[in-house]
Structures are given as C-alpha cells and as structure tokens.
Amino acid sequence: MCGLAFAWLSGCAVQTTALRSRPPSDLPGAAELSATPFFAQTAYQCGPAALATALAAIGIDAAPAWLAEQIFLPARTGTLQTEMLAGARRHGAVATRLLGTLDALLREVAAGHVVVVLQNLGLSFAPRWHYAVVVGYDVVAGDVLLRSGGTQREVIAMRTFEYTWARSGFWAFVASRPGDWPVTAELDAAAEAAVGFERSASPAQALRVYDSALQRWPDSLTLAMGQANALYAAGNKARAAELFEATARRHRSAAAWINLSGTLLELGAPQAALDAARQAVGLDDEPWRARAAQALEAAQRAQLP
Amino acid sequence: MRAPHFQEHDMSKFRRLLALVVATCISCTGFMPAANAGLISTEQVAASEGLRTAEQQRSHVLETLQRADVAQALAERGVNLDQARARVAALSDAEAAQMAAQIDTAPAGADGLLGTVVFVFVLLLITDVLGYTHIFPFVRPVR
After folding, report:
1. A14-176 has which CATH code?
2. Does the structure's ipTM exceed the value 0.85?
3. Which residues contact B53 (CB under 8 A, 6 or more apart)?
C-alpha cells in the first residue's frame, strides 16, 4: 500500500499538464458559476453542505441541517458517497456520476453544471476525505474554483486539485433537474442515475427522465423499458403497451414481451396477451424463463370463459 | 485498500452459506408472486443488461435492519432505524449491491467457524450499513 501511495505522491498531475499544454479548442478557457449559493459547513458536515450547494444551484431548497439528518452518520462523522447520490435523488434531483476526467469536469462547469467532487486532502494512507463543489476554472491560470468547507470561493491550483481528486478515485457527480443531463454523461451512468431516480420519484417525473435520456441514447433497452414502465405506473397503460411492443420487437427482449402481455391482460385483450407471452417464451431467454412461463400461464387462464 | 485474498476461500464458503440462508428465507416468507406477478421492473432489466446486479442485495440490508440487536447497534451509533431504512430504500440496486459486496472484502476474522446467521447479519450491519470497512471511504473532512 505504501508503494502505491508513493507512486501517487511521486506521480505528476497528468491530466492538468495535458489540459494546460493543449487546451481543447471547444472548451472555454475559463468559466465561473458565481451565482452558485454557498453553505458553510458546520463541524464535519462537508457532505450535507456540498449537497445543499449543488441542490440550491438547480433551485432545490434543502437546508444542510435537514440534509445532515438524512445522509450524515454521526458515529463516523461523515457521509457515504452513495448517500450523497441517494440524498440528491430524494430531493428530486437526478444524480449522475461523471467520468473521472478533468476534461469532463470542466466541460460540465462550462455548460453551467456545478460538480460535487470527493477529495482526499490527505494521503492515501492517512486520508482526509472532503466533499466540495466545483464552480469554476481557469485553464490559463491553472486554477479550479470551489465552494469548499468554510470557504465561499476557494482558489486551488489545478494540479493540486487533481492530486486530491485522484486520491478519491476521481469521484464526481452532477445533480440535475429531471430532463436535464450532464453534457458529458455516458449511457451506463445515465441509466444508473435514471433507475435510481425512478426509485424515489413519481411516475411522471421518472417518465420525464427516461424520455429525455432516450432522446440522447435511443438504443438503450434499459431506458426504453424504464420509459414504458413509467408510463404504466403513471396509468397510461395503452401507450405503455405500444412502447413495450416496440421495445420487444426492436431489442428482441423477453422482458418487454412479458410486460406487454401483463399490460394487455389488464387492458382486456387476452388473445393479444397470449401472443405476447408466447413470444416471450419463444425467445427462451435464460433470466426471464420463469417469468415468461408465468406470463403464458396467466394469459392462458384468461382465455377460459 | 486491504488485501482480502488470503480469505477468499473461506469467504466463498461463507457466501454459499449466506446464499443458502437467504434463499431459504425468501422461499419461506411467501415471496412467490401471485397469479399476476406484476411487471418486470426497470432495475431488473438493467441488471440483466449487466449494468447492475440484483435487487436482493437491498432486501439483505433491509432484513438486517429488522433485527433487534442490529437496531440497537445502529442506535448506539447514533442512527435512527427509520432513517436507516429510508436510506437503504433510496439507494439504487447498484449501490445496495456495492454495500452488500463489502461482505467479500470485510475482515472475516474467524475462518468460517463464526459463519452463523447472526454473524452474517452483524457483518452486514457493520460493513454495509455503517461502512466499517475502509473500502468504502467515509468522509472525515477538514474543519
């Protein structure tokens, strides 16, 4: 472990060096989201303070003290990373993990999204974990601007920032309003964010998230199923059935056929439900085999007078 | 950052036991769906897509919270049980799985001998709910 730590210590801030020597032409040289509110942290509560900042930046009002009750573990005087994501969701934001690159981070800020980051301000063998919110940068000056701890506008050298961020495994996320996505988000992270959001959101809000995600990643089975499931949950079963069918055909998805079959039964179309269940069984897709058989059985039962 | 490799063999036995226990619990608590099984959830689809792993992880953690000794241990650490439940509920499957997966890397200490159900649950409590293992970094911010 010491060897690893030493490697980190002696390594250089690769991303900073690359970014500053060859700045991407499509990345603004500097940006600052100066209107971002500031919540000074109390005691150890940098997690709640950072989350409150990120939520306030998208117009969601959540006092740090209130957040602390939900995400802070008193005995550990800290907040888990997953709780930061879950806490954002519970307040109606979509929490999407970012790629751990400085380039992605700066692009988000340039696009108007503040980014919550986890830093290790200490060393890997003597960690000092800290959450902060990135609100600006200046490539030429080599600075990153943070809302951090008790400092409203912390100016930190980009290479120092990279060191501290690297020691957290480049952990970062953007909290956005449903329908809005980080510009650098990737499909896996977006699907995870959408699924996590669906868990604590109303069907209408979840639908909005899936709709917007599908516009950007139209080929995702998970997102397509999420959209149809959200429609179903919102009570629009007829439209859900159409989307289940489209998804089933497009992705040859047994899961979609199964859901189509169940939805058609509820819509009073037992024959069509039977056809859909047969399609599901016919695909013989291992994870859904048992559910497909159940769907077939239910549809067959519905045929009886 | 700790190396769990030397315990891998014991841990796999341990996990088999855990799987057995959990499977038994699920089969005897009436988990079997009724005639209309309901639709397949997006999370299940995501899991089948290889994006994330199963939903059971969450129920492990939630089941853990039901136990009186676990609740007491939580209370001693300043965590209210309802808050803890709400926290688990708000985690995505992936995150719940990540928490549950810490059982693999937790220092088992006893070489399988302590692999009783209670130990499993207490270990789950310690590693998953409170994150006593350091794999999952807890925040200890600067003042």
Report:
1. 3.90.70.10
2. no
3. B47, B93, B94, B97
